[in-house]
Design goal:
heterodimer; A: about 160 residues; alpha/beta; Glutaredoxin; 5 helices; globular; B: about 70 residues; mainly alpha; about 40% helix; about 0% strand
């Protein structure tokens, strides 16, 4: 019996499985891709180089996202120009985002990833997920979810370590 | 031999084509909707709970006092 064909098929199946489930998730140490190439709705901040950047993926239907917004807003006000918070909305409908923002007014930049291209490239594992980048655009810290005061404290210590 | 290979190929195709859909975290808008909650109707939930613990006898009352005798 020719088992080599069966073996080849098994290997091909395994390889195909690996290929289709392979994740290109953005992780600590990676560089954030060029945001201009993702056709995001909304105005991107002028210059990110040299600044600490928090890229936060959120949606209007995500309750922890709503809890994280006042904290992110507080951080933006506290660190001013030294910190750029870029909240990337992944809602399917812009109206849902606008309704949310009317209820949770914030001072940081909010853009919408209408085509869900950036979020697909970053592959966050939970909502919200935030990536803290250093002045060179490299991901230095990653937060999955928002856990109230614990996350706030982590944000503060991580941002301050990057501002030094 | 050929039959086995074909069978394997068909089985592989069947598994991959009919496999579970992987919903990404940012695509859960509809799953996160309030209407997707099983307990969205308090009265309905209370009735279902009552019937459940009345019929399941010794299983207890799902957090409600009583041994499931149906007398609550």
């Amino acid at each position: 019996m020719n088992t080599s064909l069966l073996k080849k098929l098994a290997v091909a199946t395994l390889l195909a499985g690996t290929f289709f489930t392979a994740q290109a998730a953005l992780k600590v140490g990676d560089t954030l891709p060029d945001l201009a190439s993702f056709q995001l709705d909304g105005k991107l901040p002028d210059a990110l180089k040299g600044k600490v950047v928090v890229v936060d993926f959120w949606a209007s239907w995500c309750l922890p996202c709503a809890k994280s917004f006042p904290v992110l807003d507080e951080l933006q006000k506290k660190y001013g120009d030294k910190l750029v918070i870029l909240a990337v909305n992944v809602d399917e409908k812009a109206a849902n985002m606008e309704k949310f923002l009317a209820k949770h007014a914030v001072s940081f930049t909010v853009v919408r990833d209408a085509q869900q291209k950036l979020v697909a490239a970053a592959e966050p594992q939970t909502m919200p997920t935030s990536f803290i980048l250093d002045g060179e655009g490299k991901v230095r810290f990653l937060h999955s979810g928002f856990h109230g005061e614990d996350t706030r404290k982590e944000y503060v210590s991580e941002i301050e370590s990057l501002l030094k | 031999m050929k039959t086995q290979a074909l069978f394997l190929l068909a089985a592989t195709l069947l598994m991959t084509i009919t496999g579970c859909a992987n919903v990404k975290p940012w695509q859960r808008e509809h799953l996160a909707d309030y209407t997707m909650r099983a307990d969205r109707d308090p009265l309905g939930t209370a009735q279902v709970e009552h019937i459940w613990f009345s019929r399941e006898e010794a299983n207890g009352g799902r957090g409600v006092g009583g041994g499931g005798c149906g007398c609550n």
